[in-house]
Design a protein that fits this description.
Elements (H helix, E strand, L loop, with lengths): L1 H7 L13 H16 L2 E2 L7 E10 L4 E6 L4 E3 L6 E3 L6 E10 L2 H8 L11 E6 H6 L6 H6 L5 E6 L16 E5 L9 E6 L2 E15 L4 E11 L4 E3 L3 E3 L2 H19 L7 E8 L7 H8 L8 E7 L9 E4 L5 H14 L5 E4 L8 H5 L4 E6 L21 H14 L1
Parallel strand pairs: 6-7, 7-8, 8-9, 12-15, 12-16, 16-19, 17-18
Antiparallel strand pairs: 1-11, 2-11, 3-4, 3-10, 5-9, 6-10, 11-15, 13-14, 17-19
Helix pairs in contact: 1-6, 2-6, 8-10
The chain binds zinc ion.
């Protein structure tokens, strides 16, 4: 499994996003692994891919940010010192004045009251803690641009967490780590290459293993293969735990069944979903255009964040499908696979969600254990401990046998 994680987190796959065809490269790799394992095409007789389109905001080139004080210039490191907000616009702006908005100014801007803005072009600067005090209903920057700022800088006290957006603002918007921000800075320069890719085509990869016993009834295994990709030339988000680990598990499960070690009672579908990080889009698409009728799915097991597990595993929907959850817990107790199996209710936090919403019985499994790297440049191949990986693999295999 480490090999799959290493491969998917390597530079070639560009963080499995929408720059340098990272998503397409990952999709092809997974399809090859499906074929190698002996899975049959899950879509039509000769196809593994289910394509769909979406708009996606990308940063394909420069992401230069320089803070300027009287005495020095500080170049910020992309991914470490700052992230470009997912819905940022692009632009090349030199020596913008920094205009700091505290709570009072912030509230004036939001309430359309008169604010004395600097003359000429400026960047609006505020702390995320200040922002949090105002529970803005609409899009945050839409509110702020009323102030006619040419750029937005949000100072973050917590970790920098990136994501994917489907539209963009007209102006650059960056989030800077508090410890990287120079309070003495008076001006800054920014050069962001940004491109909204319209109707970008990406794809789910679907492989099938037919059971002679119940050929038209399915157990579905799923894991998303996309991650956040690249933010400019220099910052890549490898997504080792999220979700190279889940794909490793998906492939290991496929290999076990096709090797004949375990003859399943039901046919199996293995789905590597695209565009999960973009808002569960690939899995939603599947439920809208299902390849096999959703009512033919006996159970779905979605795997995401499978890289650790020293503290056990969470079963999302465990408190919804209690009979299956009890089965899972008893198998685990008997074999001592994992420290504990926790249960929670339904949650729209991964690809099982739209299936559950459409009446499919499903669990979403994620492994537990302290792991601070989430949607950042540090979730690299060597970081996941993989302590619960084998236990989770065996537990899933035994659970499917018991269904
Ligand atoms: Zn994920």
């Amino acid at each position: 499994m480490r090999k799959t994680i290493d491969t998917l987190c390597s530079k070639y796959f560009a963080g499995r996003g929408y720059i340098d065809s990272g998503d397409t490269r990952a999709a092809k790799y997974i399809m090859r692994q499906f074929i190698k394992a002996g899975l049959k095409p899950g879509v039509k007789s000769q196809y593994f891919t289910q394509s769909f389109q979406m708009d996606v905001n990308t940063f394909p080139g420069k992401t230069d940010v320089i803070l300027q004080s009287k005495t020095s210039n500080k170049t910020l490191k992309p991914g470490a010192d700052f992230i470009v907000a997912p819905n940022s616009g692009g632009g090349n702006l030199l020596n913008l004045k920094l205009f700091y908005a505290d709570s009072i100014i912030f509230s004036k801007i939001i309430n359309n009251k008169k604010v004395k803005f600097p003359k000429g072009k400026f960047a609006l600067v505020f702390e995320s803690d200040v922002l949090a005090k105002f529970k803005l209903k609409g899009n945050l920057p839409e509110e702020l641009i009323k102030g006619k700022a040419s750029a937005i800088i949000e100072i973050k006290s917590g970790r920098l967490v990136w994501s994917v957006a489907h539209e963009n603002l007209k102006i650059p918007y960056i989030e800077v780590a508090k410890n990287a921000f120079d309070k003495n800075a008076k001006t800054f320069s920014i050069n962001i290459d940004q491109k909204l890719l319209e109707a970008y085509e990406t794809q789910n990869i679907i492989g099938k293993y037919r059971s002679p016993k119940n050929p038209d009834s399915f157990i579905v295994f799923s894991a998303h293969y996309d991650h956040l990709g690249k933010m400019g030339n220099d910052a890549m988000f490898p997504g080792a735990n999220d979700n190279a680990g889940g794909i490793a598990m998906l492939l290991d499960l496929a290999r076990t069944y096709t090797s004949g070690k375990d003859t399943p009672k039901y046919s199996l579908l293995f789905i590597a979903f695209a565009a999960e990080e973009a808002g569960l889009i690939g899995s939603r698409y599947y439920t809208e255009v299902p390849v096999y009728p959703l009512e033919n799915i006996k159970f779905l097991i979605n795997m995401d964040l499978m890289g650790n597990g020293q503290d056990g595993m969470m079963a999302v929907n465990g408190s919804v499908f209690t009979k299956e959850y009890e089965k899972l817990v008893s198998i685990n107790k008997k074999n001592n696979y994992l420290k504990e199996i926790k249960a929670r209710g339904k949650a729209a936090n991964s690809d099982h969600y739209w299936f559950t919403e459409n009446g499919v019985h499903a669990f979403f499994f994620y492994l537990l254990g302290d792991y601070p790297y989430y949607h950042d440049i540090y979730d690299t191949a060597e970081k996941p401990t993989l302590k619960g990986y084998n236990g989770a693999f065996k537990l899933i295999r035994d659970f499917v046998k018991a269904l």
